[in-house]
Amino acid sequence: MAAQDAEYGLLVPGAHRARGLTGDWHVLRCLVRVETAWVAAQADLGLVPGRAAEAAAQVLSDEVMERSFDLVDLAERSELGGNPVIPMLADLRAAVREIDPQAVGAVHRGLTSQDVLDTALMLVLREAVQRLEDSLAQAESALAVLAQRHRGDLCAARTLTQHALPTTFGLRCAQWLEGLVDAHERLERLRTPVAIGGAAGTLAGSRALFPQQDVLPQGGDASAEASEQVLQLHAAWAAQLGLDQAPHVWHTSRQPVLDAGAALGSLCAAIGKIADDVLLLSRPELGELREPTGPGRGVSSAMPQKQNPVLSVQLKRTALSAPQLLAALFTAASTSVDERPDGSWHVEWPALQQLLRLSLTACSQLTELAQGLRVDVERMEENLRASGPALLSERIVTALKPAVQEADGATGAQRIQAVLARAGADVEAAVDGLAEITGEGRDAEGHALDRQRLQQLCDPRGYLGAADLLIDRALARQDEREALPGGGARTGEDS
Questions:
Q1: H-helix or E-strand containing 383?
Q2: Segment 359-377 mean pLDDT
Q3: Active-site annotation, residues
Q4: What is the mean pLDDT of residues 475-483?
Q5: pTM for this structure?
Q6: Cα–Cα distance measured from residue 393 to residue 166, given in angstroms and rounded to the nearest whole number
Q7: What is the span of the domain harbouring residue 138?
């Protein structure tokens, strides 16, 4: 309900991409869904009449929701009890009473505010993760296309900001892809359980819904049977919501929240890695990459000649924001005292909401970036060759050390390095210098060191290691994922 949703993301550009999944109106709808599902679960077990479930379900219609709830009013009233469930419940009961006065008694029976709020947040999380996985599949597919298309295109690998060795842009894309797939698999392993514990984690409220008997008519343990019925009720509730059953009472054991935070944090880190690389390589002095263009995209208010890499900037924002949000979640978990936390629980809510909003936004932006990324292959190779044969020092020194003797206090390796330093980007000068100090010797593999062999050693295409194999492994992993039910399909691949 856009009119009531006060969170438009004015200071979080791109947040509209997460609209409908993380805003307060959606959270409210999930709270109501949790309550109505609980009534339905009671009806499934014969604890309340079926008409009670029908009446409660009617509240979820847009018409009744908009008539019955006001976010501004709810937010203000939430302060009185310290959580939004209490005022929401009052409005929900009023809405159900209008539909069927006899159904009101079934609402919230045996539940607590924490049961409802934690379960609602798991519902928000599950739906957000489903959207995340869809976006991730598209981004992964786009990166797979780039990895295949550019598997043979040379560029400089950089370590500590400096040229290190030759690599290919295809391998760089494959490494981006691997990071995303790792994060995706963590998301797939997430469990989103209902939260149920009652007022103090004993399930006394749920147990009280069933007839109290000390002895069964046929003999046996009445308490054990009632406890089993409680578990059946919880299972029915989880099924109504499409959530997992609770493995235990997790009111103050916050592993489901921590697992979610860790998975989202891993995703944000993988996205941040890609963003940082694109930001670096799109600097004009490097000019190897450019973001996709479009009307108004990347414009500067004062410098019209610029195209700012705004997608990558916003992706980096997400990566920079996530650690603080994770810290809030983990700090809250470690201070969840007693059987109901005294403040730490409240810290989780905005942190998880913002982490989800940023992740959803970033995944959508990443897909757009990957699908439209503009690669300047010629500039990549030009930048690489600016380092000359010195970029291959590792290879050249290893190959030529047996043929170069110590002289004038310099080791063979030092003499080779000196030749490469003097030659700079001039390959022929490097070959001439190396020929002079190697004479008629042979390299470490026994090859005669003629000019042809020296030129081979100075060719970056001959020192790419297992780049092709690593790309193939990443693409095979992606192919396996796409073959799974719901897997995406690559588009635009020109392999």
A1: helix 377-385
A2: 97
A3: 300, 340
A4: 90
A5: 0.90
A6: 11
A7: 128-203+237-384
